[in-house]
Amino acid sequence: MEMFHVKPRWLFLKITCDDGTIGWGEPVVEGRAQTVEAAVKEIARYLIGQDPRDIEKHWQTIYRGSFYRNGPILTSALSGVEQALWDILGKHLNVPVWRLLGGKVRDRIRMYGWLSLEPTGDYIDLYAKTMQMIEQPHVLHAIRDNIILLRDKIDKRIDVALDFHGRCTPAMSRRIIHMIENVDIMFIEEPVLPGDVTALKQISSSTSIPIATGERLFTRWQFNDLIEQQAVAIIQPDISHCGGIFEARKIASMAEARNIAVAPHCPLGPIALASSLQLASCTPNFLCQEHLTLGHDYLKVPFQVKEGYVDVPHLPGLGIEVDEEKVRAGIFAGDWDTPQFRLKDGSFAEW
């Protein structure tokens, strides 16, 4: 089991089997990649020597066997390992992962990206330069005006969603959402910090704009109350954080029973994206797939977007060929840190 910290802030895992089969995964927590690397090394003590095809057995052992469960570090390490094991199994059987999860339900997958940000490189610096601290009431009207201007300038055939990134209190979110109620918005993401199901349900009940959340929730147990209470219209599990491909499929099935859509979170690298596309291919209540990269940075053959869609992948495993020369050329220390923002009075502001 070999790991590579690669620019801009990702961690790739390569698992090589005794028969030469290679599986790739992306176990990472943004800003804590070195910590996740240590967790994967601990998992390796158990995993090396095992049959990689027994994915569910390994998932249960790794997740439950450490006594302390859940949390971003363990589940992200487990997620990347699990992705690599599915990649191995798919290659062993010469089928894509979606074939092993019930088969595809669509022929192409709807994608969405970030507006006004470069698809590669140090996008955080660019973002920080334009950031406004929306918790300050005096900027509310400017935010409203900018959103209206943005929506007016974009072709109406193109959907626009807004990410609040958990920066607002529930009261502030309700005020902003009320001000843009009549703007054509596809959904609003993370209007409050994750875990506050009551606030999310109140916000959802106060607007006709669909509410989305879930990128910072881990495993089906943390998604359970959110789904059971139908607190949001869209859940956003991250395949590199929530427990992996099969765990995300279980979460999606729970959501399907409550008529909740799934839009997997993925501001990560091409291996995480490939894993997400396997989920999208076989999930009936899938909505759209976030992406930062299409793999031009580290894949031999990147994904191709045509009119906002990519074709369902058909190669075995995760459906990608990682370019190890590019990976080794992109190695860095893994010391990317989460940006720290401050309000004008010097107090901490949510990123």
TrEMBL record:
Gene Ontology MF terms: lyase activity
Annotated Gene3D superfamilies: Enolase-like C-terminal domain, Enolase-like, N-terminal domain
GO biological process: amino acid catabolic process
Keyword hit for Magnesium: no
Domain Mandelate racemase/muconate lactonizing enzyme C-terminal: 124-210
InterPro entries according to UniProt: DgoD-like (IPR034593), Enolase-like_C_sf (IPR036849), Enolase-like_N (IPR029017), Enolase_C-like (IPR029065), Mandel_Rmase/mucon_lact_enz_CS (IPR018110), Mandelate_racemase_C (IPR013342), Mandelate_racemase_N_dom (IPR013341)
Keywords: Lyase
Keyword Lyase: yes
Record-given protein name: Mandelate racemase/muconate lactonizing enzyme C-terminal domain-containing protein
Classification lineage: Eukaryota, Metazoa, Spiralia, Gnathifera, Rotifera
